[in-house]
Amino acid sequence: MSVAGDRLQDTARQAALALPDVSHGYPFTPGLDVYKVAGKVFLIVTDDPDDQIITVKCEPEHARAYVRGYASITPGRYLDKRHWISLGPGPGITERLVTDAVDDSYDLAVERLPRRDRPGAR
Question: pTM score, two decimals?
Fold first, then answer.
């Protein structure tokens, strides 16, 4: 069953906050809730009720597959379109898909950190 926009965003926020060493705030604009690990952005949630999307990091080949496979997944808004995707409510967008996308995005951000800065390295 597809998730509605507010549930999509709530699912993404809960998934992000369940991960180690995550911080969040509004560093860019009041309408973008940004989630980071060790200072690296991995999730952006829009606070616009008319545009309920989340944006996550994604491997380029996976990003292309998602965009081809789901009408409500587009190249990342305002970001590098090869490495970010935006998910909105629509057919096939499930809570599991959202959670997996957030987890994958977090993992991509963590693997690009120096080992000493990774969660659990202290």
Answer: 0.92
